[in-house]
Amino acid sequence: MLVGALPQMLPLAVSDARLITSALAGFAVIIILITWLKLNPFLALTIGALGVGLAAGLAPTDAVDSFAKGFGSTMGSVGVLIGLGAMFGKLLADSGGADQIVDTLVDRASPRMLPWTMALVGAVIGLPMFFEIGLVLLMPVIILVARRSGLPLMKIAIPTLAGLSAMHGLVPPHPGPLVAISTLGANLGLTLAFGVIVAIPTVIVAGPLFSGLAAKWAPVPVPDMFVTREDEGEDPAAGPRPSFPAALLCVLLPVILMMAKALTDVIAPDAEGGIKGLLDFVGTPTIALLLAVVVGILVLGAGGKMNRKAIAESLESSLPPIAGILLIVGAGGAFKQVLIDTGIGDVISRFVTGSGISVLLLGWVVAVLVRVATGSATVATVTAAGIMTPVAATLPAPEVALLVLAIGSGSVFLSHVNDAGFWLVKQYLGTDIPQTFKTWTMLECLISVCGLVGVLLLNLVV
To answer: Which of 163, 180, 218, 421 has a C-alpha 20 to 30 A away from that of 130?
Structure first.
């Protein structure tokens, strides 16, 4: 109860300058510990998070409680999804299902078109899904496509990540846009239509076009993960593997379940029980991914002629390689929670309220500031939408829809060390801190700025 009350109490006891200075110092300490002292990111994030809490005025026990709350919350959501996704990805690789999907993509798309194909794949998968789920589902495909095609890893990864992230920030039914739509009273259909219009050029710029530069800035090798029989030199025709439709169905199953839940939430938001109740259950991220693993055991295991021992070994061997990823992502979530509990979001809200800039630009700026300070796109969206609610009541419907998109664009800006997604991408792709800033962080900035430009241009014609 005490931790939950901190955001309301701290602004009265701690100066705004102290909060901002503490946060900036915390960012600097974490980066120095990792890049100069070569400290493990988990340890650096833990030290940085607790240090920021204490410097900002939290009592020692409250700082520890806030860290534990953030770590536990992240592990209970993202951590579970990473674990299930790793199991599914390893099973997809060991059964030959990943080979089947990758060979089909590589055979039917020229090397020049592969980045565009992967951007489309990322956008489709990302439409109904949280970014983290889409990432763990597609990571085996990203790595295998890069390995088989011979293209630089970033030429494949960046377009896929652009599709996932742009959909997450701009297009309902993701939680952020839906919260903003509800808070601001925007029209869902209009926001969805505008979101797709803005997302398409945004994905193109931040994905296939930017991937060439990213490949030059971060020429990292393809990670030694999801190694398949074909990668080990075996003849792909020598062993059985699932058919392309079966493998694709397993990958798309959580997408279908979550999309079905999202559609029913839009069509019948107040309905209870029956089909709606069932879809609400199976369409939640954890259950959808769990069902994908179960179906994968049956379908992929049968298609790859895997016996019970082989399936058990595949699932068991999937978890040790991600232990470090889980700890780092959890610590990133803990750092974010400490920043939120210090009340820095309230400082930013007071700072921007009453400024004279345009409504759409103001919504974007508020979301950017909260995102950079707290590392949470959802917190940025909720805070910005709350601040802009009185203004939105005076706007016409098209401009309210565009305000939702401006806030969504700002909510993905400048992912850095206080964002669990930053560490998730870094660990999966094997980049160092500077390379992650030059690729993933730059990608998020491009999505944010291109989204804002698209919103402002649409505002001129609607």
So the answer is: 218
